[in-house]
Amino acid sequence: MKTALALIFSLSTLAFTTLAEDNPATPDNGTPAKRIASVNWNTQSGKLEWAVQSGVMRDGDFVPSSEETHYEITPEQAMMAFQGQQRGFTGQEAEWLQGLLHVLTVYCAESTVWWEQGQGLPLDHDQKPTGQPPADKSTDPDTSPHKVITPLPRPTPGAIRLVAMNPIR
Q1: Mapping DSSP to helix (H, G, I), strand (E, B) and coil, where does residue 56 land?
Q2: How far apart are CA 12 and CA 18, in angstroms?
Q3: For residues 5 and 111, what is the distance between their CA atoms, to the nearest angstrom?
Q4: Are 95 and 152 in contact (CB under 8 A)?
Q5: What percent of the chain clears pLDDT 90, i.e. is strictly above it?
Q6: What pLDDT digit, counting tens, does each position of 69-127 carry?
Q7: At residue 70, what are phi and psi to the nearest 5 degrees?
Q8: At residue 95, what are phi and psi to the nearest 5 degrees?
């Protein structure tokens, strides 16, 4: 679970840094920058959608200066859309993206199981533990089925392989 969180944090930081570095500094208004405002992966429609805000960096803080612009990608069609325009991309990129989204989907499913099993410490509004850790159930074997096995997409030549492991046994 920590690995997936680190991956998501790294990707969002990289996206923010890349968008901010694409624009040169202007002396009066701060450094022009863009930030990813939201990301939505709809597994039913198969679309990855996100919103981007434009603004400036002032004293290390992002200050938005415009409305959000919306982008979407449909990996199954290897197509990206923005403001009514569509552009295709390679099948190799589409397969890589589908693999990444598969990892995210599995992570969300495993997190749901983790929550429903009552794992983790309950927190108060100040994010301080309010209860005891869950009882160790290792002496009580759980024989009910848990694991859902889904086929992984074909590996893309030259791509980094991401693997999600199911810690539930």
Answers
A1: strand
A2: 10
A3: 11
A4: no
A5: 40
A6: 999 999 999 999 999 999 999 999 999 999 999 999 999 999 999 989 888 888 888 88
A7: -115, 135
A8: -65, -40
Supply the DSSP string of 74-100, one letter for each residue: EGGGTEEEETTEEEE--HHHHHHHHHH
Among 39, 33, 37, 38, smallest CA distance to 17 is for: 33
What is the residue type of 22?
Answer: D
Q: If you search the block for the tokens 């990444």, which residue do you land on?
A: 100
Count the domains in the chain. 1
> Is there a domain that residue 64 lies in?
yes
Q: Is 24 a member of any domain?
A: yes
Amino acid of residue 111: S
CA 27/CA 51 separation, integer angstroms: 27
26 falls within a domain: yes
Q: Name the residue among 104, 75, 107 with its Cα closest to residue 89.
A: 75
pTM assigned to the model? 0.59
- Beta bridge partners, 26, equal 30
Is there a domain that residue 131 lies in? no
Residue span of the structural domain in which 9 resides: 2-88
User: What is the residue type of 53?
Assistant: Q
